[in-house]
Amino acid sequence: MKTILKQIIIVALALLINGVAMAQNVPTLEFSTENNMVVTNAGFGLGTAPISLNFKNDAANNQIFTTNSPTSTLTIGFRNQQFTNLSYGSTDYLGNGSNYNTIQTTGLVFGALPSTSEPYYAGDVTQTAAANNRFSVFGSYTVGGGGPTNNMFTSNPNATGANLGTGINASNTNQKYTGGVNLFTTAQALFNNPAYPVGSRVYFGDVVFTFSTPVLNPVIHIAGLGGSYRFQAANNPSVTLSTFFSSELELQTPGFTSTRMSGNTFFTIDNNKILNNNNANPNGGSTNILNESPFNNFGAASGSVRINGVVKELVYRVYLESGTASQFAWSTKGVDASGNILISGGAAKDPLTGDVWSLSASYEKPTQQISGTVLNDRDGLKDNNINQTAGIANLPTNVNGTLYANLINSDGNVVASVLVNAEGNYLFDKVPVGDYTVQVTTITSAGTYAVPAVAPNTVLPNGWINTGEFNGAVAGNDGLVNGNLAVLNIAANTISINNNFGIERTPESVSFDNFIPTPQLNSVITLTGTLPQLTGSDPEDKPTTASLMGLTVQITQIPNNSQLLYAGSPVSSNQIIPNYNPTLLQIKFTIATDTGLTFFKYAYIDSAGVPDPTPATYIVRWPNLGPLPIVLSEFVAINRDCNAILNWKTSSEINADKYEVEISTSSVFSKVGTIAANGNTSSTSKYAFTYSMQSNVVYYFRLKMIQKDGSFTYSEIRKLSCADSRSLIAIAPNPVVSSFTITGMQVGKNTILIYGNDGKLIKSQIVTNTYADINISSFAKAVYVLRIINENGTTTTQKLIKD
Predict the structure, then answer these.
(1) Alpha carbon distance 751, 511 (integer Å)
(2) Of 127, 247, 101, 124, whose CA–CA distance to 182 is shortest?
C-alpha cells in the first residue's frame, strides 16, 4: 500500500471505483463489513492480538450476507516476531494531541499506517504510526484512487474462465463490502542498519491463518503489497530521493500447493511464495492513475491465491524486500546523528515508513460434508477426552503421511478414501444423504460412491495404537476404542465437523546384558550403581531415553532361577510398580545354576496407562557357570587355652567332597586335618576343628575346599597365637531389618542378652555353638545393647540397631 508525501487525515475508507458485477452463482463464505459481522479482538489502532472473523454466507455473490451454520471462523495472528520493542506506536488515536504516549511495538502489527514527513496531528511527535482500522473494507485505499479493483480477486476456489476475477467487493458504492484485516510491516525497524542494504530481503515474522474447522481449498486474498517514501534533499530541494519496499509471503505449512486465481500484473505466485514481481520500485498503488502528481505511485501487488487441499492452519513467513531502484535504504530522518539536515524542512521532517497491506479469505460453502482431525492423544482416555491432555489441546498428526480416512457406508463398504493431510485433518465433500462411519488406517481404498469396496483392516503404523474416537470438541469418547467412529447420519445440508480420532505412540523399554563377579548363593545385588537402571523413553512423555525413576514399570516376567525383590518383598509376574525407585529393585541368587545367568523382563508404562508392547530383557551374567560350588559364609579362629578353635559355615554345597585344614608358621602351608563335606545341599552346613598350638608361635590357618572332581578353592587366611585372646565376634547385618547372625563366639555355652536403651532386658537366648541366628522382627525401630557371655566368663558387648 502506498505511502504519500503530502499531509493526510484518515477519513472514511469508501473507494471511488465502481465494482464489476458479481458473475458467480455458487455460494461462498466470506467476511462482511456490515453491522452484523462479528469481529473479536479487532478495533482501531495498533495491536498484535489475534483477530477472529466469522465467515458469512454470500449465497448470490451480491454481498448480501447471511449467518452461516455451523459457525465457521478464521483467526489471523502473528508468531516469531523478529523485531520487538520498537518505539514508534502512539496511543493518540483521536488526533487531538491529548493523552499522547509512545508504546513499544513490533515489526508486524495490525491497525497502523506510516507517517509522512510531517506529524499527522498537532501535539504528535515524529516517528509515530498513524492509527488505522484493524478490520475494515478489504484493500481499502486512502487517497486519490490507485487501490485494488474487484476484478483482481476471486472468491470461489473452483471458478474458471469468466468467473475468475469475481466475487470479492472492495469498491461497491452501496457499502456492502468484503471485509479484511489491515497489516503493517514497518521498514523503520531496518533504518540505518548496514546489515540490510538496498536490495535486501528481510524476515519479519509469521502470519498465521487458523480455521475453526478443516476447510477445502480456501482462497487467500492479499491487497497492496508495496510501498515507498520520497523526500526533497536539504541541500537541493529540486532533487527528490526515493526508497521502495514490498511485503512478501512464503508458505511454511507442508503438504500444500498454491494456485494463482487472479490479480494485477505485479501479483506473482512462485511455488508457495506470494511475491511482488516488481523488484525495482514496488510502490503503493495497485492500479495506475496516470494523472497522479507529482509521482506515479503504481506498483503494489494484489490478488487471490487458492491453497489446494484440506486446510486447518496456514503459516506464512513475512518478508520485506527492498526495491533495487531505491536511492537509500528503507527510511531516513530529517537530521542525522551528527546534526546535519538531510530533508528539506529539517528536524520536523521525520517520517515513519512501512508497507500497509490487507488480508481476507473465502471458500465455497460446503454441502453435506464430514471432517475431523487425527490427534496425538498423550494420556489416552484418562480424562475421557481425546482432544486434550490435562487441559492442553492435543497436537494433530498424520504419522508422516501414512494415514488414510476411509468413509464407510451402512453396508460396511468404503465409498471414499482420502489421505490425512500434514495437519492431521481429513474431509469428505459432497457426501450423499445416508448413514456413515469413518475409519482411520494405513490402508487406502479404491471404493467410490458408485462402486463401493470392502473395508480394509484398521491398522496403525508400527508403534502407534488407538486411544479413542469422538464426534465433538468437548470431553468424551464413543465407548469403543477401535479406530472407527460411531455412526453419523448425514441429512440434507449436514456439515458434520470434529469427527476426531485419538492415537498415541507406545513407550520403549531398554534391554541390558550385564556381567558381574560370580555371586554367592543367597547373595543380593541392587540394580543401580555399577549396574544399569531400568531405562526407557516415550515420544509423548519422555522423548529422551533415561532412567524410569518416578515413573511406572511393569515386571512382565520374573526370573526362574533367582528371586526379584522390590523394597525387600518378592516381585510377582506382571506386577506393576508405580513411582519406581531404582535403589529398591534387587536380585537374590536363591538357586545354584549352571547357566551362568539370570534374567527378567519389564515394560515402561506411559501416562496413558499403555505398557511397552515388546518388554525389554534385563540379563545378569557371571564368568563361572553358576554360583560357587561351595559358598563359605563364615570362617573364624579363636584361642582357648592355647587351642585353636576353627569354626566355619557354608550356605550351599554342590558336589563338595571334603575340607582340608592347613596351617603355616612361615611361608609354606601343610595339611593338619580333614573334615568330610555334606556333599550337596542348599541349606546351611556348620563345621569345627581344634588344633593344639605351641606357646610363642604365630599360626596361619586356611581351608582347602575340595570338590568331588578334585577341583578346589582356598578360604581366606586366619591368624592366631596362644597370646591372642581378643574377641572375634561379628554381627551381620547391623542395622538389622528382621534377623541377624552372630559368628565367632567361643566354644561352650554362650548366653545372648538384648537390652533396651532403658536397660531393661528384652530377650535372652542360650546357644552351645560359636554362631547363632537371632530373630527380632517384632522389635520396634531403635538402638539396643547386645551382650554375649561365654561360660568361661568372657563378656562381649556391642550396639545393635533395629531398622
Answers:
(1) 52
(2) 247
Contacts (Cβ under 8 Å, ≥6 apart) of 35 = none
What DSSP character marks residue 343? Answer: B
Helix (H, G, I), strand (E, B) or coil at 535: strand
Which has the closest alpha carbon to 226: 277, 190, 150? Answer: 277
- CA-nearest of 584, 577, 682 to 628 is 682
Q: How many other CB atoms are found less than 10 A from the CB of residue 103? A: 14
φ and ψ of 188, to 5 deg: -60, -25
Q: Which of 25-39, 201-215, 576-590 has the lowest mean pLDDT?
A: 25-39
Closest CA relative to residue 795, chosen from 750, 765, 730, 759: 750
Please name the residues in contact with 609: beta carbons below 8 A apart, sequence gap of 6 or more: 380, 382
Kind and range of the H or E element at 697? Answer: none
**Average pLDDT in the chain:** 85
**pLDDT for 563-582, tens place per residue?**
999 999 999 999 999 999 99
* Residue 596 burial by Cβ neighbours in a 10 Å radius (0-12, 13-18, 19+): middle
Strand positions, DSSP E, 309-424: 310-322, 354-364, 369-376, 388-389, 392-393, 395-396, 404-409, 413-419
Place of cell 487531538: 96
With 0.85 as the threshold, say if the pTM is over it: no
Q: Give the whole-angstrom CA distance, residue 583 versus residue 534.
A: 11
- Cell 451454520, residue? 69
Question: Quick one: which H or E segment has residue 429?
Answer: none
Closest CA to 128 of 151, 161, 100: 100
Please check whether residue 155 is in contact with residue 22, taking contact to mean a CB–CB distance below 8 angstroms.
Answer: no
CA 323 to chain centre: 41
In order, the DSSP letters of 31-75 are -B-STT--EES--BS-B-S-EEEE-EEETTSSS-EEE-SS--EEE
Chain-centroid distance, C-alpha 695? 79
User: What per-residue confidence (pLDDT) applies to 633?
Assistant: 77
Give the pLDDT confidence score for residue 472 in this predicted structure. 84
501, three cell numbers? 480420532
Identify the pLDDT of residue 131. Answer: 82
Which residues partner with 508 through β-bridges? Answer: 537
Provide the pLDDT for residue 439. 97
- The DSSP bridge partners found for residue 465 are 504
| Distance, CA of 145 to chain centre | 50
Q: Which of 91-100, 138-147, 217-226, 652-661 has the highest mean pLDDT?
A: 217-226
Strand partners, 447: none
Q: Provide φ and ψ at 162, rounded to 5°.
A: -70, -20
Is the predicted pLDDT of residue 690 greater than 60, yes or no? yes
Alpha-helix residue ranges (DSSP H) falling in 569-625 = none
Residue 334 C-alpha cell reads as 530529517
C-alpha cell of residue 643: 587351642
Instruction: Give dist(CA 80, CA 782) in Å, integer.
Output: 62
The rounded distance, in Å, linking the Cα atoms of 164 and 152 is 9
Q: pLDDT category, 60, cuts 50, 70, 90?
A: confident
C-alpha cell at 740: 541377624
Q: With contact defined as beta carbons under 8 Å apart, do 363 and 218 qualify?
A: yes
Q: How far apart are CA 417 and CA 182, in angstroms?
A: 39
Instruction: Summarize pLDDT for 364-423 with one digit per residue, the tens.
Output: 999 999 999 999 998 888 888 899 888 889 999 999 999 999 999 999 999 999 999 999
How many helices (H) and strands (E) the chain has is answered by: 0, 63
Q: How far apart are CA 771 and CA 30, in angstroms?
A: 94
pLDDT digits (tens, 9 = 90+) for 297-351: 889 999 999 999 999 999 999 999 999 999 888 887 765 666 665 665 555 566 7
Residue type, 612: D
Q: Residue 435, Cβ neighbours under 10 Å: how many?
A: 12
